[in-house]
Structure formats: structure tokens, C-alpha cells
Amino acid sequence: MIVYANIMRTKILVSGMKIFVYLFGFVMLLASCTSSKKEWENARASIDFGQCESVGPFDVFSTSFVKLETGDDCLIASVTQAEEYGGVFYLLDAFITRTVYAFDRQGKFIGTVGRMGKGPGEYVVPSSFFIDTRRDAVCVIDLEQQKLIGYSLKDYRLAFEHKLPFSSMSMRFMDDGTAVLYNQEYKSDEPLYNLIVVDKDFKIKKRMMEQEFASGYKMGMTRKLYSVGNVVSAYTHQSPFLCRVSSDTIMPVYEFKFGDYRLPPLDFLQKEGSNNRNYIPALRESGYINYYEVYENERMLCVPYYVDKTMFYGWYDKKRSKIYNYKLDEMTSSLKSGPFSTPIGTTSDGKFISLLSTEQLMSMKENGMGFVKELEGLIKVSEKDDNPILLLLKEK
């Protein structure tokens, strides 16, 4: 049995979340990075979010907003991933409409990338996508048909298509033409690995990051493999290491610490998840960190983590070596933005993309809540059923 649990999104996704468990047959790997212990402990930098700067979010971050056009052909039920490239916002609704949408900088609807179906260039369950600048393509992974589909950035027409050698939810191409995929399988008589490198013909070349704990019950989203420029990175929810990946090696570059909070130890997971038992209720009540995610651009790391029914945002300024750590409510109040989701993507100019629910904003406005001036103006011209507003967050 596969159960998906995502408790980090705000009311923006509530309507979709009511049927996520019914719709969502994805499997997300939840396992530990393994290698020689000394090698992993020699991470280049240790980031402890419990040792943070005593400065408020308003003094650290600036905000901007994009109101997405709403129409019959672009009515978004939920958003699981967003990326901006070349002045275009690409948003994936992986649960309800199962479609990739494209909007311009002003939020005007451009069109959809690909379409539902089982023919060439069509997808059934688009689990994730990425922008491949080497091939000038939007690449969509179809979990159902186990294939990668590339669409031209110029006109969104089919550019290439590859059958994947195993079930995967995310992948990235590397400079030498190989690709690394995040393995979603959790049952096997052989040792399982989180990362698998394939050659140009998509034949398996190398396996990396062996799993110590695997389960059909998962928390969090699919984002455990990503790239910033040509640098590919990977992590797992139960290991504190963020790793850089090449076709031949994987090496930790950051080790995360969370003050007084700890990731669940392996023996806890193995005990609570034995025989593929649902360990998530025990994890939620354990006091351990339930999961964390990583979003990164050239300057900043954003590490949202969930523990004791509270969402925290850990931030690390890579250039100035400064650490910030806030509860979601603290950021919402300081920025006067209303409740927003954890990041769902990044922009090419260094902003983190989150979601705001127009219905929730309007309700809060009616109850006397005040917002930053730019957002106040967007709320005035919104309807409750409108598509979400994008919040773009950037360090000052």
C-alpha cells in the first residue's frame, strides 16, 4: 500500500488535498545517504539553524507578487512544482488536472506544455518537470508510462522522448550527456539505491546512495534531486547531508543541523516501519523532524522543515555565511503577505516561488487583516475562485 502524506502546504491546496490519497499513487523514496562514515562527516560546511541571526524576516527579505490569469483553459486545482525560465512561469498540477501550464511575467496565460494521453508526446501522470537549457526543452517525467518527454521551449512541441529503464519521479541531465535519476522503488530482493546514473542511451551505468530504510509510506514532496545551473544536487529526508552529484561521484557539501531538533534515527524508522507498516503517525508524535526539503539558488539555501506540527523555514546565505530561522507564522506576520506555501520552485533571477490562496486572502481581508500595498491591490481585483497568486521571495 502506498500512502502519500504532505502536511506542509497551506489552504491553497486544501481542495486538492482532500483527494490526494485517492489520486496519488506516487512513491517517494525516504532513505539515508550512505558511504564511509568519515567521508560523510567531512562535509564542507555545517549549517545549524538553531544558531541563527536575531533579525526579523522583514529586514532580510523583499517580496513581489504575480497574479495568475484565471480561465476555463487554465483553471489550476493544485500546484506541486513551479519554475521560471526566460520570463515564463511553468507550473505543474500533478494531482487534479495533471497538466503543465505556462504564464508570462505578468501572469497572463500562454498555454499548456504537452497534454494528457498515451500517444507520442503525451503524458498520463506527470510527476515532475525540469528545464533543460542544453536542449532548450521543458522535460516532463510521466510516472505512469515511465518515460521522459521533452518539449521545445520555443513552441512547446515534442522535441524528444525516451523510455526510462525503471520507475523514477525526477531526473537531471549532466554535462557529459549522462543523466541521474531518483529511484522510486522501495521493494527489491537486491540492495536499493536512491540515485541511478544512465548513459546517453538510458542504460544503467552506476548506482549511488544506497538505501538503509525504504517504505511505501512517504511524507513531503518529490524534490530530492535538483539543479542550480549545471550543478546537480540530491538529498534524502532522513540524512542531514546535501550532496553534489556527478556521473561518477556523490559528495556532501553541507550538513544540516536543526538546533534542539533531530532527524529520526534509523532504528526508530525500522521499528515503526517494519513489514511496510505505516510509521507516519508515530513519526508525527515523536518529536523528531518529520521531513525537510531543500530549495537553492546561487546565493541562498531555503530549508523548510516540519516538526511538532510546526513549519519552520531555515535560510542560509552562502555568500555571507549568515543563518536565519523562522516559524511560518513569524514570516507571514512580518512580511504582511498572508499564509503562503513552502517554496515550490525558484526563478532565474534568484527568487523563491510560493503560493497564496486568493480565497484565503480575501477572507482574511474581510476580517480586518492588512497586507503589503502591492498585495492589497491584487486582492481588490480578485475573486475567491481565482488561480493562486505567486509570492516571489528574495533576500534584500
Secondary-structure map:
Layout: E1 3-5, H1 14-17, H2 20-23, H3 37-41, E2 45-48, H4 57-60, E3 61-67, E4 81-85, E5 88-93, E6 99-104, E7 109-113, E8 115-116, E9 122-123, E10 126-132, E11 137-142, E12 147-152, E13 158-163, E14 168-173, E15 179-183, E16 193-198, E17 204-210, E18 217-219, E19 225-228, E20 231-234, E21 241-245, E22 250-257, H5 266-272, H6 280-284, E23 291-292, E24 295-296, E25 300-307, E26 310-317, E27 322-327, H7 328-335, E28 345-346, E29 352-356, H8 358-366, H9 373-380, E30 389-395
Parallel strand pairs: 1-18, 2-22, 8-9
Antiparallel strand pairs: 3-30, 4-5, 5-6, 6-7, 10-11, 11-12, 12-13, 14-15, 15-16, 16-17, 19-20, 20-21, 21-22, 23-25, 24-25, 25-26, 26-27, 28-29, 29-30
